[in-house]
Amino acid sequence: MDKRMTEEEFVASFDEALDKGYIFALYQPQMNHTTGRMIGAEALMRFKHPEYGMQYPSDFIPVFEQNDLIYRADVYLFEQICIFQKKCISSGLTPVPVSFNISRYDIFEKDYVEAIEAIRKKHDVPVRLLRAEITESSAVGGMETVSEVLKKLHTCGYVVEMDDFGSGYSSLNVLKDLEVDVIKLDMNFFRGGVGGRGGLIISSMVQMSKWLNTPVIAEGVETIEQAEYMKSIGCNYIQGYLYSKPLTEEAFIEKLKQLSFEPVLASMDLIESMNAEKFWNPESMETLIFNNYVGGAAIFAFEDNKIEILRVNPKYVKEIGMNMSAKEFISGNPLRYFSAEGKRTFISTVKKAIRSNDEETCDTWRTFESRCCGEDKICIRTDMRVIGRAGERYLFYAMIHNVTAEKKRYIELFDSERRFRFASEQANIYAWEFTYATREMRPCFRCMRDLHLPPVVKNYPEAVFEAGIFLEESREQYFDWIRQLEEGAEHVEGIMPLTVGRVPFYIRYTNEFDENGKPLKAYGSATLVIEEEES
Ligand code: G
Ligand code: G
Ligand code: MN
To answer: Which of 150, 156, 418, 496 counts the highest number of beta carbons within 10 A?
Structure first.
């Protein structure tokens, strides 16, 4: 039968507890939720009295802290962890890094780092198999001391994690001054659920950690929904009851045998000249350029066929118009605005840019709805390129242009030409289209029937001179028309005799331009010139 021990009982039995192993570590696996691999474990202190049974950490940790016992307890537990790691190595297992908790009281003990280093060396455990967890609240006693300990730990080669991030002790300030390697975000601080404000705060914290290039481990994850939410905002590392409770050494060894290991990755490696720190620094030249770039620009992440906009500049917001705010673009799935075809185009362009590692462009239609402007369809041209990657996650720089007006004009022209061609099939007109780039001519049905042309005439217009449809005497004139069209003339027209019968036809060309104003195709038509009979 368990009995809650009193403060006096904890203090009185402390020496015996260290001696006889009432104090020991449990190991809680830390997982990559996406790959199912283990990234490490946290050692958690437990107290089991032979008579009174298991005691709550929330009971004995504060007692140890208030009675100057925590330092001894932590150093003791650190040695237990080293012994465990050494045992794993010796028995041929692949050990994973184990995090140990540093109390804020340990930080004020002068030779804390020296003490644990001596123990680590005594047991011959590589430093990469141990990670230090300092809590945000350590900073309460003064930044200088924590900073000093952090430096010492780094010098010795320890990865240092910021524990209990989000607990509210001015998280941002602490993060700014302490260069930790990993952030542990405790879901217990968001028991109100991940919906609404809680979710927004968590996603902002994860976002921020990305800017700092610091991986995040979400702690206290109990449900699949929480894990999926964390994954959706780019945090794959998870510790909590969902995967496993803290385990005894024996049970943890079983996990080690079952699961494979992968190292914790920084959330993003920026390539080449892009310097992450500068880029996210509000005062840097990079930020200045981004914010003041004459066109719309955005930074987005791509993973798992999903797009996440991380940052937009003021011109981006202007370019799309619709009176939307930067916040509206950044929150939620940006592809929700896209047409089905636009989605496919965008994703395939993203993939192309990953393969080519070069700038790629696409035009996509999106439907925006805003409170003031109602619904509107907008065509956006995006020039994108990869600027960073971490594992399967890619970071992109994108420049955007609103090309809606050009696109609409283009579509109108295209429609009118198509209507014209339908009409010509009905009337006494021969019609065809000629594509400059391919030198291909596509005749209408009547041309095919009367002039015995195939559906595609190659090597146009040379081919129709060879076929005797156009006459040699018109060659110079006709090639001059084509030249004018290729140089951008809107129309050319004139009368020309066709076929051996020298039948006079009125020939007219209308030029079609692409969205950049470059000639694309010429639509030709020929109508018989009816000469009025002389009376
Ligand atoms: O397992 P959980 O209920 O284990 O732990 C409760 C609290 O005790 C947590 O805030 C945790 O950080 C702290 N804690 C767990 N293990 C240790 C330890 O080894 N040393 C210190 N100082 N705190 C610990
Ligand atoms: O050192 P730190 O305060 O981060 O200790 C982690 C604490 O979280 C420990 O008390 C541990 O037992 C506890 N814990 C681990 N997984 C879960 C979980 O899924 N839910 C909750 N509520 N607590 C957890
Ligand atoms: Mn911890």
So the answer is: 150
> Which among 419, 400, 421, 376 has a CA at the least distance from the CA of 524?
421
DSSP letter at 261? B
Give the residue ranges of DSSP H helices in 487-528: none
In Å, what is the CA distance from 25 to each residue of 63, 99, 218, 369, 430? 18, 11, 21, 55, 89
| Options 2.60.120.10, 3.40.30.10, 1.10.10.10, 3.30.450.20; CATH of 270-402 | 3.30.450.20
Three-state DSSP at 132 gives strand
d(Cα 155, Cα 143) in Å, to the nearest integer? 18
Residues 204-242: pLDDT tens digits?
A: 788 777 767 789 999 999 988 888 888 877 788 999 999
Burial of 471 (0-12, 13-18, 19+ CB in 10 A): middle
Q: Which atom of ligand 1 is nearest to the CA of 57?
A: 6
* Token reading at 311: 């940052």
Q: Residues within 5 Å of ion ligand 3 by Cβ?
A: 101, 133, 163
121 CA to middle of ligand 3, Å? 23
pTM of this prediction? 0.61
The tens digit of pLDDT for each residue in 388-446 reads 777 788 888 888 988 888 888 878 777 776 776 666 666 778 889 999 999 999 998 88
Ligand 1 contact, 138 CB (< 6 A) = no
